[in-house]
Amino acid sequence: MNNRVLGLISRSQVVSERRWHSTWKRALYALPVFFLIAMAEGGKPSLQNGGFEASNPSETWQVVRSEAKQAYSIGCDTSDSKEGKQSLLISAEHPVDLSLRQQVYLPIGTLWRLTGWVKSSASEVSRKNDSSWPPPPAQRIGIEAPVGDQGFTPAVPSSGGWQKQSFLFRVPSPGRVTVALNAFNHQSGKVWFDDIRLVPVEEPVEEESVAISDERLTKRPIDVKQGGQFMEPLCNVLHSMTAQQVQSTSFEEETPWNVTYKAAVDKPYRPWYPDGSVHVASYSFDTDHPFNGKRSQKIELPVRNTWAGISQDGFYIEAGHSYRLRLHLRGDGDVPVRASLHGDAGMIAGPVSLGRGRPGWRAGDVLLTANRTVQNAILTIEFEGPGTIWLDRVYLIDKDAVLGLWRPDVVKALQAMNPGIVRLGGSAVEKFEWKDTLGNWDERVPYPDDPWGGSQDNFVGVEEFVQLIEHIGAQPLVCLRWTGRTPQDAADEVEYFNGGADTKWGALRAKNGHPEPYHVQYWEVGNEVGGAEYDQSLPAFAEAMRRVDPAIKILSSYPSPNTVRVAGTAVDFLSPHQYSVGDLNGTEDELKQLREEIERDGNGKDIRLSVTEWNATAGEWGLGRGMLQTLGNALVCSRYQNMMHRYADQVEIANLSNLSHSFAGGQLQPGPGYLYEIPDYFAQLLYQRAAGSYAVKVGRSNPLSFYLAEPDLNANLSADGKVLRIYGVNSTPEGRKLKFQLASGLGMVASGEALVLADSSPTPDTEAMNLPDQPNRVAVSKTRLDVRGSAFEHDFAPFAVTLLELKLQPKN
Questions:
Q1: Do 344 and 493 sit in the same domain of this protein?
Q2: How far apart are CA 479 and CA 1, in angstroms?
Q3: Are residues 495 and 361 located together in one domain of the fold?
């Protein structure tokens, strides 16, 4: 993910001007909350000062800090208004980027109309760079939300009169929306706004007719890789998946994490601390001749017949399990060294001897077998004086770990997702030295985690990632570093994984214990880099990589308008990142635009799309990020997956961000002794059932536009025509009854079942989350359906994702 705006705009936010409004909108949501949450008396949501009759509009309409530094004026115009005595006037003598916003809470799932008057005498948009994207519009009104924009009106012409603007929108979870007045986009002049209103729209809940056709919408089936997942070396994302429990394995300095969800629990403070006869021992970090990294732990104990050492708390230890403790030590005084696990007022395992501390580094490797389960155990490493010891690269891993490293419960949960493909990438890749992650764990040096803060202990390298993904039966997707690298660097990495044992890098792989090539097929060049220099470099990268292995598939990073024209012969995939998938119209427009570029400039080459990162948001840092763990987020993501099914001809790969931990955003939430999944994990399981099927046409009697109609619908037919799957995402608080009619070519329903992802509480709540002690509050229930024939009804539960899985038989 992108590191250029960390802490203000949030990761992966600097996007092409195609998604121009997302950048500053996300900056708005990442800032401390200074927007007005407007609520009228009686609890009814209300917009304040929409007619701008108050003397100071800035009291209710706000400008984000980055834009507030520009030269402009905001005031009231008493000489020209459409309602009341005055209107809002925004003026700028020199080009500025400026919008005003007001935040309100509205009932989730309800339908509203935003209306207002706009008048402009702004200058033409001047480009801020040489991008060939058309300039984004301004002089308009719209609705923003944490999950993506919910609509904007067309821009009004300059030097014209007042124009009334209006559109419908439905309130997405969590109900927090922002009314945005887009005044200038690198423009000068004057813009007026007046009579901005939010009007609730009555929506009678009546039975709707839906026709399911046998007409396929795509030539290709839905690929299993549309359910792809994403891992990255970011803070605790990788570490949370491993069975390695020691913090600060090499005693290196570590900066604090730059982002948080719940700061007190994101990274529990687990330092090494002095233990034993600390009143006579001396402790220091020694930078002279460490075994690993820049320093080691030094302990001096001048007193005979007493013990001193270091301890660390916070280990989850399970009865009957054996834990491999490995470290390196050296010493003066031929001192005996031992280790133990203890806690809850007793010994759990050990003490066991680690040998004696003598000059020269040597490995200590022992098994500690637990006699009972302890949630918060203590690991102690100590020696008997007099003498001195140095300790370095300490780690403790359950012997039952999958492939010697990974938590079995995490691997089981990942495998159950049947992801098809899993990507290793993210912002750290552009400073990542893949060669430093090879070989023996003892000798791998921890590296700083830029730009997120902290460091990676370097147990999960590219090879461990590839081994894990092949173990679960999926395809690994490796993201290569582009920044500061040459085509030969990329070819070296491909050769390590795919070259024969007789090649330079294949020989190193064989030496590291894997003689046979991995045959990694999917390679992405760079993470969130793009532009002219990048596009021009792609052919050389691709040529060097394919000389090593002609069978590989090469993915671009961020596509620019010229990527296909300049490098279309080099790439097999364009890889946008979509982090506002609650904006279905906007994300679909981007897919259409990329399809048009491929058709226009691809010279007939079958270039497809790989959305290598996506989610409802990449920001919302702090407590607001908890929205990613809610049922509401699962509803938003499910609507996006409905859309992706209909784009199976273009979208082969999609990697949901992120797999584990990720400051509340991970599909998996591992902790000491527990693992729970967020609601969208279960939605992923439902949507992967459609792999290999074809999206079919759906017609409905609802007069609303496609993405406003509820429930959001999608239908898929299995390749053999025997199973029809209907996905319905009801984002409203009321049940929605639909009357289905199947086309004669589909045959008849013989049997079926409904799989429903919903809140188990009697009163459904879109903010419902799973928790360590309530891991299945939001989960999937299964019910047999009493459905026969070609016509049937179904009542879609409120705030729920429903899959109707119907077995078909030919019509007699």
A1: no
A2: 11
A3: no
